[in-house]
Fold Leucyl aminopeptidase.
Amino acid sequence: MNEKNFEYLKDQIKFTGFGEGMENALKEKIEKGETEFTLNHNVKYGNDTVSAILNFKKSDQSEMYFFNSFKITLEKEQSKEALSQTFYINKDNNITAKEAYNLMEGRSVNKDLKNKDGELYNAWIKMNFKEEADDKGNFKLNHYHQNYGYDLEASLGKHPIKELENEKYKGDLLNSLKKGNVQSVTFVIDGIDKKQYVEANPHFKTVNVYDAGLQRINNRESKDQKKSESEKESNSKGEKQKNDIDSEPSQAGEKTKTKRKKQSNSI
């Protein structure tokens, strides 16, 4: 067995998001010397069951094996039909297991990719369920390139999200959303902290907002939350200005009083 090849594949499996529990199975498969083999991996995300089949193939020119692709099957508790998609492994444009799950849930993932000429570019990826799957059963992936104009941070900034006030928390939030996760955040509404969830929506250049029970909050409701916070701040400023104005006549009156007193004494 080629030890370097084994170590490389072991790391590749790990960094693609399938963990470190398949080392023994991988070694056994390589030692058998078969032309092709598969490894199985299962995980649960909440009530969702995700099964993966990892596909490996031996080179025609050497004893080296390659991790070519993995097929994800998503079974949701409330659905009788399972959804499957194959994701291909290559040098630069890999999707991780968790990102694959998020894509199959209909969310968007941000990746640094390379085109056919080897040029690096950034894009948001989203599975297109509106079109039928191809002859291999795979759905098309829509790409929203960096020139599309989606600014995740600016979209988040339209909402009263507490985590945006801290650079570390903001960075963690942005990274999580770029992986396609639905992320818990704290909305500050009328001075009260309220737990809600957000996810990136590059197609409409916004973020989707959900309540604590993961029920979608419509756009109008979300705007009203921001408006409420803005009005409160505006009222606070208005009250301060009013207090400043109210105090001025009194001070002016005192000055006038003093001036008249001086005039009276001079007469």
